[in-house]
Write a structure and sequence with these properties.
The protein is an alpha/beta fold. It has one domain (27-56, 66-158). It is built from six helices and five strands. A five-stranded mixed beta sheet has the order 2-1-3-5-4.
Length: 159
């Protein structure tokens, strides 16, 4: 009972209150995926790999920073989390076999293409709008935020 109580406290009380939780547990890919679930509308999505970085650490000292210093998600883990949270695997379970393969649905890219064949949702890092606006015609961007309100990425429809 003690082990269950301690684990419950860590998972449901201490963990959510931990200021650095957003830097460690794949928060950015989950936020991106959940937003895509409700706004993708069947359009292709290009997720720039740099957009999946965790948000900056909160200011101030943290005596536990050494224990959970950084996000442990690899790019493959991050795009898998985005695709899973977006509901892509529920519609196409076979897509989970090769999450990094470009399939025209929710794809991870390291750089934006010169041209887009059709309107495409772009998920960019916070500083990525200038480059995208130089290449494409963009609709007003949407700032994606964590439940705590921390901005993590920008989603924009490019034409």
């Amino acid at each position: 009972m003690a082990v269950v109580a301690i684990n419950g406290w860590v998972l449901f009380v201490a963990g959510p209150l931990y200021a650095r939780a957003e830097q460690v547990y794949g928060t950015t890919p989950t936020v991106v995926g959940r937003w895509l679930r409700h706004h993708r509308a069947g359009r292709p999505v290009l997720v720039l790999s740099t957009a999946l970085r965790p948000p900056a650490a909160p200011p101030g000292r943290d005596r536990f920073a050494y224990a959970n210093g950084a996000d442990f998600y690899r790019p493959l883990d991050a795009i898998t989390a985005v695709q899973l949270a977006s509901g892509l695997y529920a519609r196409r379970p076979s897509r989970a076999l090769e999450p990094a393969r470009a399939a025209g649905d929710v794809d991870l890219v390291t750089a934006l293409p010169a041209r887009l064949a059709r309107p495409t949702l772009l998920v960019l890092p916070l500083e990525g709008l200038a480059d995208a606006s130089a290449r494409y015609t963009l609709e007003p961007p949407r700032l994606l935020r964590t439940p705590r309100g921390t901005p993590v990425a920008v989603a924009v429809l490019a034409r």
